[in-house]
Amino acid sequence: MNVLIVDDQRSARRVLTDILSAEEGMSLREAASLEEARKVLATTRVDVALIDIRLGEDLQNRDGLTLVKEIREKTDAIPLVVSQSSEMGQIRAAMRAGAYDYVLKDELCEELVVPIVRALGERRGMEQELLRLRARNNPDGGSLRGLVGASEAMGRLRDRIQRVVVSSRPVLVLGPTGSGKELVVRAIHALGPHASEPLLDLNCGAIPEALMESQLFGHEKGAFTGAERRQDGYFTAVRRGTLFLDELAELPLALQAKLLRVLETGRFRRVGATSEEEFQGRVVAATHARLEERVESGQFRRDLYHRLNVLTVPVPGLAERPEDIPALVALYSGQQSRPLRFTEAALAVLAAYTWPGNVRELRNLIDRIAVFSDENPVGSKTVAAYLEPEAAPATGQGLRALARAVLQTPASNKLEAIEESLISEAMTLAGGNKSAAARLLGISRKAVERRLARDGDGAAAGDAESHEDDSEGEGANGSASGTA
Q: Are residues 164 and 56 in the same domain?
């Protein structure tokens, strides 16, 4: 259990440290001021915070009460007030602000403090488990239902989401374009403790830099030309909800520095303002870019990268989970205006494809087929005709996906089946020209003829071929062999 002790008096911190340090499983951190406590909370997961209400000699100091409010609004730590018996009015105010309990400084002892701290630690553990159960058994299913697939990759993704929702720290969602990062962000928000609060998204690459700062932070009247009234920004409007910063890598460097300060201090300043405001929500950022490379090239701040690269959620591309394709096809087919079914051969073609556009490309493909094709059930030739030719599988991962699809076919001799299919398809594409088919296959014309004869297709198809086609492998001028 991580315990934070916040008191401006070193002697008071020492008393609490001596009491709690002997307890097994407790990790203690200290802070002497509101700012020090904020820094600890920004970098360390805290379970219980023991807070002195008055952090300073000034009798009007209420930084402890401010800290209680911030902890309840921004973290899942449990605040416990430690104060003098003469400050009962402020203790009651702290309890209204969200403190779970209080202890008096003149009554500090092991018998009193340890049971309270342990009980609060257990309560926090129960709250976390409750959130995990809520994530797994969400009654409407909407948060995770959109993440279709039973593959191991999707199982890992769901588990990751269920783990990060119990924290209030920023989350970084990583994945290729079209993989469904937006669905992941919506699931994180829906499963979190403030699902009823707003989820606002801002594309960092779609707004000019001159306007981005005002969009994020808001501005005061007269802050710049055209600022005719005071305007709230996203950091204000999101309240205790989730601010989704899409394409984070495109955020200008100057604003990266200001975002880092918000994440570290929980405070921001409107454009043209002289005072700061609190940010009460949670930041979830997403990008398809490799931030490590952006850091090395100077396009992304290293300190912001390390601040965000703590709770990361990698989203797998569709090529990493081809076994989920039938379920996705069923989902998107069911959303069409007419019933649409796909044959097993068509699904095999889809499984063999590399999907550079990921899930988004699959959805668009089914939309196109539903509109432009009258075939139902949809066969493999129709699917192949609508796939992007420049992205068809050729090497590496694409060939491995193709091999998986072939191995799932019922043919008794799968090697012969795939060879026969390749020869047949090459002959079709070459218009019956054996020499052209041989070039497509990367083998000799005689090898094509032997395989056609073996498969019973005969050589009749080659009777109409020209003499030039029979000279496959000869020089461009038709000579038997070119000379230097």
A: no
For residue 397 the two structure tokens come to: 């991962």
Q: What is the domain extent for residue 119?
A: 2-132
Nearest to 437 by CA among 416, 417, 459: 459
Instruction: Give the CATH number for residue 168.
Output: 3.40.50.300
Q: Tell me, yes or no, whether 13 lies in a domain.
A: yes
In a shared domain, residues 326 and 455? yes
Whether residue 280 sits in one domain with residue 201:
yes
**What three-state secondary structure class fits 277?**
strand
Task: Give how many domains the chain has, as a whole number.
Answer: 3
Do 102 and 18 sit in the same domain of this protein?
A: yes
What is the C-alpha separation between 64 and 81, in angstroms, rounded?
Answer: 8
Q: Are residues 201 and 216 in the same domain?
A: yes
Q: Which two tokens stand for residue 150?
A: 């039973």
Q: Are residues 345 and 459 in the same domain?
A: yes
Whole-number Å distance between alpha carbons of 154 and 146 = 11
- 437-462 b/e (C-beta count within 10 Å ≥ 16 → b): bbbbbebebeebbebbeeeeeeeebb
**Does any domain span residue 98?**
yes
- C-alpha distances (whole Å) from 182 to each of 4, 188, 245, 331, 407 are 35, 10, 10, 18, 34
Per-residue pLDDT of the chain (484 residues; tens, 9 = 90+): 889 999 988 888 899 888 888 778 788 999 998 889 988 887 777 888 999 988 877 767 778 888 888 887 777 788 888 887 667 888 888 888 778 888 888 778 888 888 888 888 777 777 666 655 555 555 444 456 668 888 889 988 988 898 888 788 899 999 999 999 999 999 999 888 888 889 999 999 888 887 899 999 999 998 888 888 889 999 999 988 999 999 999 999 999 999 999 999 899 999 999 999 989 899 999 999 999 999 999 999 999 999 998 889 999 999 999 999 999 999 899 889 888 999 998 998 898 888 989 999 999 999 999 999 989 899 998 998 888 554 444 445 556 666 766 676 666 777 877 888 888 877 776 667 787 778 778 888 888 888 888 776 544 444 444 434 443 333 333 333 333 3
The Cβ-side half-sphere exposure at 212, using a 13 Å CA radius, reads: 21
Last residue of a domain, one of 265, 294, 314: 314
Going by their DSSP bridges, the two strands 277-278 and 267-268 should be labelled as: antiparallel
Give the long-range contacts of residues 183-188, CB within 8 A, separation 24 or more: 183/146, 183/147, 184/147, 184/157, 184/286, 184/313, 184/315, 185/242, 185/244, 185/284, 185/286, 186/143, 186/146, 187/143, 187/144, 187/146, 187/147, 187/161, 188/161, 188/164, 188/242, 188/284, 188/313
Within a domain: residue 305? yes
Q: Classify residue 340: in a domain, yes or no.
A: yes
**Token output for 415:** 């090697």
Instruction: Determine the Cα angle at 259 with ends 256 and 262, to 5°.
Output: 155
